[in-house]
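Record type: ASSEMBLY
Status: queued
Input:
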Amino acid sequence: MLNDFLILMKSELVISFIIFLLLFIKVGTEMTNDRLLSLVQFLLLANFIAGFLFNEAGSLFGGAFTTNALMAFQKSILSLGVYLISLLFADWLKKSEHMPEFFMLMLSALLGMFFMISSGSLLMFFLALELSTIPVAAMANFDLEKKLSSEASMKMILSSAFSSGILLFGISLIYGATGTISFTEMPALLDGSPLQILAFVFLFAAFAFKLSIVPFHLWTADVYEGAPIAVSSFLSVISKGSIAFILLTALYKVFGPMHAVWYNMVMILSIATMVVGNLFALRQQNIKRFLAYSSIAQVGFILVGISSNSIEGISSVVYFVLIYTFSNLAAFGVAGVISQQTGKERIDDYKGLYQTNPFISWILALALFSLAGIPPTAGFFGKLFLITAGASRGSYFFITVAALNLIVSLFYYLRVIRAVFMDKNEQPIEKINMHPSTKLGMIICGAGIVLVGLLSWVYDYIVNLSM
Amino acid sequence: MMEPGLYHLLFISAALFFIGVFGFFTRRNLVTMLMSVELVLNSVNLNFIAFNKYLWPNKLDGLFFSIFVIAIAAAEAAVAIAIIINLYRSHHSIDVENTEELKF
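Status: finished
Output:
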């Protein structure tokens, strides 16, 4: 019994251990930020590697906590993202007075996401979802003296509190309609009665809030712009990724019998998300707002894959989130370094960046090509598999709209690349001195963007896990 | 005196839910908006208890759920109040109309 507990919950236990260790270090010692940052980076790397060891499938607590190889892999993707964040934003973290608290909040949110991915009942899912959003709202306020930061975090906490109210109302209706909150018992009791459909709409609205699907996306750009860049990148990659994973479980395993009901809903929302995300990204001048709308558009593509309700749906979404982690974190990392050293966040300020900083220009170009889905980079394969999975339902109108949106998105990604490589500027951003670990993080991201696409066994491995 | 049935309780909880939503959309004071969210959460509690009592008296999931909801609501309110206090320090106001630097 105890052995089961230790092995099945090992990733959660490791994270809890790191959180407590940081707490003791904060309270009991006078460690400098430099040494603490290296320690945390080492621990997060160890956590990422430990994610691949001793994985077994099973369930605990009467089915409330389940785990299997696919979930372990999803958790590893999230761990990798957190490790990359600790590398990429080393400069910002070192200057922060409250670095241990930042990591404690971030790891608590990560712990919540792990429990959420593994949840086997609606109660567990709700508690984990709250654990993964409340600390993030506190993190958004981390630049305590900045007005924008407190405004962003206010918007985040109010919208997430409201969306959890909606989620709970949906859960209560589901409980009333079926009499169970367990994910394993529920599918047999779902018959598509009006009450269940109403409950499902409420539940999906809450998911849409967290995943910033149009028309529930309004908080996204404001929060991304106001929050510190490290937090924006956490929100856009790790938070989005974990919600996409649990949405897969919820739609396929729990609401699978109601597929006919949710297919049209996902299709309409996906089209709206891609179109609105792309159109708003066209006119953004601030790089953080630009990345926010671009991530909304990417969520639209994730929905294309989710709509398929097949094994390809699961594997393509997991594969895409892996690629998206590398490419979006690289883009945020470059934006973070520049904003940290020069305070410049406008796309116009990036003109002529290539003359002074060739390395980060190439990383930014790789990341944006991958987000746009241009062939040699992994982003192309991610989009290809998502759209192939979506096409398996046979709705060619839907797939055509998605493909057209890919072309529209090229326009704004290439606008940034043109500013960096081609436009002349009298006073480009001066030479930037990076922390060595930031450079390491960018190299890992760049290597990931290229290799994940070229090495075909990565996708085969994910397909094997999703069977 | 009529015994209250499931429909009465559901009517009350639905009314509470929409009062909460209405308050959240129309009020401009952050603390009042937070109170509206609490109304929504309490309507959910009422729903859980009512379903548990009238429809599924043998399964106590609903009761447990409402206890957890109360705890989570308290945690959320604590963080939200801390954020609102910090907002007051920088903006000298807790009116949402004054927090308008981030838009479009």
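Annotation: The radius of gyration of chain A is 21 Å.
Annotation: Chain A has 21 helices and two strands.
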